[in-house]
Known about the structure:
Elements: H1 17-34, H2 40-47, H3 52-79, H4 88-103, H5 116-148, H6 152-181, H7 190-214, H8 234-243, H9 245-261, H10 265-275, H11 282-289, H12 291-296, H13 300-307, H14 309-329, H15 336-375, H16 380-408, H17 421-449, H18 454-481
Helix pairs in contact: 1-5, 1-6, 1-7, 3-5, 3-16, 4-5, 4-7, 5-15, 5-16, 6-11, 6-13, 6-15, 9-15, 9-16, 9-17, 10-17, 11-15, 14-15, 14-17, 15-16, 15-18
Amino acid sequence: MAKQKVLDANGYRKFGMLDSVAYAAGDFGCNMSFALKSTLVIFWTQFMQMGSELYALLLIIVQVWDAINDPLIGSIIDADKRKYKRNKFLSYMWFGSIGLVVGGAVCFLPFPDVEMWAKVIIFIAGYVVWDAFYTIANVPYGSLLSLISKDPADRASLSAWRSVGSMVGNMVPMMILPMIIYDANNNIIGNRVFIAALIMGILGFIAFQFMIKNTEIREEVDVKLNEETPKINILKAMGNFMKNRPAVGATVAAMGMFLGMQGGTAAVTVLFQSFFKNVQISGIVQVFAMLPIIFFTPFARKLVVKYGKKELSVVGSICSIIACILMLVIRITPDMTGVLVYVVCQLINSLGIGIYSTVSWSMMGDAIDYNEWKNGSRDEGTVYSLHSFFRKLAQGLGPSIVLVIMAWLGYNEYFGGNQTFLVSLNLRYLVAALYLLSAVLQFVGLALIYNLDKKTLEKMNAELDERHKANKAVEVKEGGNE
Length: 482
């Protein structure tokens, strides 16, 4: 006999673990593709032998398109009036997940002996193909959180489990790939990267299908647009976004986080290649440093209910600032003792990042509600995609700027993992400085800009509930008069 579904008061499947695990699977699918992005700079500068300055320029070009692409897709989704069997966000994600099967692999076509102009075409074309499908899958995925449940605790749970999906999607390749794609001399093996990307694309596709099948949409507010709804005005949406303090604050914090995570990727890889002389352990070290995030995640829901998302995140950013200052001033030697000191600093930093990252997506869900509270319209896809726009600018400009700084500090891509000691020492301080800047930006965004503390959030949710009930009563009354 089949087990009967437990329904809530509105007739939907009662929110539970399946919702959280399914939502986590979506970010796992995204990160099966996104995790390899951190390998791009080493693949293209060391294996494909593209100059650091040229790569930095090309990365800015494709990342600017990447950032512009997000609000365009968001606007298309918001303006889509077609009827879908389940939900339009899930339908867009289904289509995007198909392209991601091969989208990531085309970024790593291993042809190091072709002319430089051909390498430029391969890089740009491959990135554009990957980015198009990733955006189609990822933009509606981020917007979906606010539609699964309106309960703050449920959203905190979804955000925390999204972080779990993201962490697992990052940790698996982070730990395994360095052991596979680098040789005994700490140099990258391009053909293996291409094969790994194909395998990861398939795993991501499977995760997306699991999520799509098991996601329950409980909130349909302003998602299915009717004929009287005006077309999306992207300039007006941008203006509303800049007036949306929670969205701006969460975006500044996210830009800071990605500046450290993505901007410092190449520097960290070369640090392990040439300073610690063991790039194979870099993944294990980074995974170990993420343990505090894993430890915090199960307690996120209860702590959010008790203390509030903003309050917890600010405390986390302070922890990160302290850890990064220690990383900058403490002597780190190029041996296992130095690795241990590095790991301890990263453990503290990771705790700070983990507190914020587990609630970051929930904070954006609240920012979408804030947009409705203050401006009268939710614009889920547009608000989230503008957030993604600025975040991706940080992801693109950060690595490009850092790569130029690395070149200025003496980094030579043709030497691979055999940089001089002075260069590797410079990169050791560069990594610490980048992480410190990242932590400071997170503090500014969360403590000084984001204004939805626990008390304000409760007030906003109460007023929105009253507004929704009033609107529903009017609809029922009008329907009865027809």
